[in-house]
Amino acid sequence: MAITFFAEGVKLPAIKKRETGDWIKNVAGIYGKKCGDISYIFCSDEKILEINREYLDHDYYTDIITFDYTEKNRISGDIFISIDTVKSNADEFKVSYEEELHRIIIHGILHLCGINDKGPGEREIMTQKENEALVLLSDKK
After folding, report:
1. Does 68 appear as a known binding residue?
2. Could you give the C-alpha distances from 117 to 2, 7, 123, 132, 134, in angstroms and in order?
3. pLDDT tens digits for range 93-113
4. CA gap 70, 134 in Å, rounded
5. Which of 8, 72, 124, 134 is the residue whose CA sits 20 to 30 A from 93?
6. Is 58 annotated as a binding-site member?
7. pLDDT, tens only, 28-84
8. DSSP-based three-state secondary structure for 38
9. 102 marked as binding residue
10. Where does the chain show beta strands of DSSP type E?
11. Measured between alpha carbons, how far is 9 from 81 in angstroms, rounded to an integer?
């Protein structure tokens, strides 16, 4: 069981892999989950659009797509993150690239833990949970 980081067509972000992995496991534990195999694949806007069209039948760009392979309380999945959109979101929300990257990294984990963001009121709950997780990361620094 491992948390791995890959890049496809982009440069792998400068992530402190051990620290980030420990943080992910800590957040999952808060929700009563253990980490199985979790792969982060950092890619371009064009790659994430291709994935969105091919697998989800969506014709738009997004910052993250999470494929959930969770079984019982062991979360597993492939998490695709568009570095292009992370950068533009950081500018739009006036936060650092690093903060936005960590927000999106944990966003995928929160999805695997069962937190949704599409229904009424769910976006606000997701944002709150992201903020709580980001505090845990900043406490480690």
Report:
1. no
2. 26, 26, 4, 16, 17
3. 999 999 999 999 999 999 999
4. 23
5. 8
6. no
7. 999 999 999 999 999 999 999 999 999 999 999 999 999 999 999 999 999 999 999
8. strand
9. no
10. 3-7, 34-43, 64-68, 74-82
11. 12
